[in-house]
Amino acid sequence: xxxxxxxxxxxxxxxxxxxxxxxxxxxxxxxxxxxxxxxxxxxxxxxxxxxxxxxxxxxxxxxxxxxxxxxxxxxxxxxxxxxxxxxxxxxxxxxxxxxxxxxxxxxxxxxxxxxxxxxxxxxxxxxxxxxxxxxxxxxxxxxxxxxxxxxxxxxxxxxxxxxxxxxxxxxxxxxxxxxxxxxxxxxxxxxxxxxxxxxxxxxxxxxxx
Length: 209
Hints:
alpha+beta
C-alpha cells in the first residue's frame, strides 16, 4: 500500500497556486510528489513543478484518503469509454470528478504544448487516445453506453489507424453531437459507415495545429 502523504507534503499540495497548480517546496518534497503521480516537472526552464489532475483532485478533496500511486496525469480517475461491466456510479460526486479531471487536462495542455495552447490535445492525450477522447465526451455531458449496446450512449474504441479512435453511438443525432464536442476539444472527427454492419461511427484524431 502506498504510504500516506507526510504533513509537509500535504502542505505543499494544499499551498499550490489555485489557478496554475504551481508548487513550491523542497526538491525532496517535489520529487516525492512526482513519484506519486501528483506533480510533474515542467520540461522547459525554470523547470517548475505543477500539480497533475490527480494532484488537483487531492487538493480539492477532503483530507483522509491515501493517494494511490498511478502514472502521472491519470491518478485514480478513469474516463468512461462505454460498455464497462462495472462503471463508476453516476451522481454529483462523479460530475465533480470528471470536471476536475478535464480542468486538469486543460492545465496539462497549457503546460506541455510548446505554445501553451489549450485548444488542442497534448502529448499525454496522443499516447492515451481512447481515454482522452472519452474524457472529452464525458466532460461535455455525453452519456456513455452501458452493457447493452442497443440502449444508446457512446463507446470509444481503438482502431488500427495511428492516432485515431472510433466513436460509436446508435443515435445519429447523438453521434453528430459527439463529433461537435470532439472538434471543440481539439480533435478532427469524420463520420463513416462500416461496410459489413452498416453502423455509423466517428473516426477521430487529435488535431496538431
